[in-house]
Amino acid sequence: MDLTAAHWTYLAGVVVIIGVMIARRNIVVPAVLATFLTAWAYSGDLVKGLASIFTASLTAAGELFSIFLIIAIITALLGGLRAMGAEQRMVRPFRALMRGGRAAFLTIAAATYFISLFFWPTPAVPLIGAILLPAAIRAGLPAMTAGAVMAVAGQGMALSSDYVIQVAPGLSAKAAGVGTGAVADRAMVLSLITGAVALAYLYLRGRRSFVTAGDENELRWLAQENGLDGGAEVGLGGSPGARGIGKGTAAAAATRAATGSSTSGSADTATKVLAETEADVSAPDRTEPVRRSRLFAVLVPVTFAAIVGYMLLGKFTDVVGEVQGDEAAGLVGGVAMLLLFAAVFSIDGSHGLTTAASHVVDGLVFAFKAMGVVVPIAGFFFLGNAEFISQITGVHEAKPPALLFDLVASVDQHIPDNGFMLSFAILFIGMITGLEGSGFAGLPLTGSLAGALGPAAHTDPATLAAVGQMGSVWTGGGTLIAWSSLLAVAGVARVPVQELVRHCFLPVVAGLAAATALATVIF
């Protein structure tokens, strides 16, 4: 199709946004202005253009709210567990496994990959964040590195191959006119190569920042969460920092001791405060609260493990129905909410009605303060998707344009017919289409290009389709852009999402380049 003024305006917006990101500046303003100008150019109506500023953010909020909600529920649950001291007890068993930063690095990567491979990363992130992440932080793994490992193993390696559920290879294969199994097998190999390179890069770059295992590590992490050390910025380009939900008790006192002084004895003071608090919790007159704390320290991880078992049962047997995708995330969120209610009522009795609501509100506040800035940015990229452009602009056509994909398709005739160069061209196109934030929407385009251009370049279309799938899913699935499910990873790791993008960028791009270069040799 012919490119219109809306296409060129949208392209200019993408270029400006990428430039501003490279300059490490806030991209909310250019995203909103680009949304307005593109919608105005498309509709030809100034009023519709102005209204699109609001409707684009509203559409994005609706699409991303499930991520916001799961962050809020898990945060609320952790707040309830923290109030009774169960959070500390819950992670103690993992100390035996995570004796240092290296062991924590490997454990987080393996657990995230395994769960995400079967159920996609959405339910994996809160599970790992609730159970393993605090133990990993205590073991000496920095929060930023932990978040990057979760993103690479889950949103990257597992989702890009999608070897079990096979939605992604099915889309790629159908568009390329090849068998789903062929694309899935190649995608699995390429995802492992990309992930191995990215994880090795992250480890070699970050191993010097690993610290000695100790309670002080988690306390400093909580200090950032609670704003006791001046607040940790969370957002794009320095947006307001998100405060944590637990203002409480032992952790707060210990973190004040750990971060409030620059003297060499501050860490010892924090340890003493924590030890005194634990001793107080174990006092005879606190027997019943301690018993409840121990109960929930066991109940929560066992319950989450049972969820994983139930999902596995549904995947490999006919005993129960299969649970996947949004249903899996809903199951995790629903169970977490019931666990929160059980926890607060066990310690607060009739006051639990108020306490439970407060934890939920605190969780929602945290989720939106930390991640809400992404909504207008996602709105602009949703505008480039044919599925959302009518909803955003109010202009209804029988076949609405896909601004982003149309731009990519317009240059496909200039792609070289050399197999090696063609692979990198398909990878780049996949990465560009992944900017819309889902990772899967661009697969029909990359698959179609693979089927059309592969034979002329004497390259297997299944291999090219798998390469395009790598570019699209690793980018849009949640490792290279902030307006994706990377939001969930940044939320549970308590790190700025834009900083997490920068931390992942070089390792992931290096991995994708290595996998693409090897693709034409291996297959």
Question: In words, what does this structure look like?
Answer:
The protein contains 24 helices and no strands. Residues 226-286 have low confidence and may be disordered. The chain is mostly helical and 523 residues long. It is globular and about 70 Å long. Helices cover 74% and strands 0% of the residues.
Number of strands: 0
**Please, how many helices?**
24
Rough shape? Answer: globular
User: What's the oligomerization state?
Assistant: single chain
Mean pLDDT: 80
Major β-sheet profile: none
Structural classification: mainly alpha
How far is the N terminus from the C terminus? 34 Å
Task: Please supply descriptive tags for the structure shown above.
0% strand, mainly alpha, globular, 74% helix, 523 residues
Write the layout of secondary structure elements.
Blueprint: H1 5-22, H2 28-43, H3 46-84, H4 86-91, H5 101-119, H6 121-131, H7 133-138, H8 143-161, H9 167-176, H10 180-206, H11 215-226, H12 249-259, H13 266-281, H14 287-316, H15 326-348, H16 352-371, H17 374-383, H18 386-393, H19 403-409, H20 419-433, H21 443-453, H22 461-479, H23 486-493, H24 497-522
Helix pairs in contact: 1-2, 1-19, 2-3, 2-17, 3-6, 3-15, 3-16, 3-17, 3-18, 3-23, 5-6, 5-8, 6-8, 6-15, 6-23, 8-10, 8-22, 8-23, 8-24, 9-10, 9-21, 9-22, 10-22, 10-24, 11-12, 12-13, 14-15, 15-16, 20-21, 20-22, 20-24, 21-22, 22-24
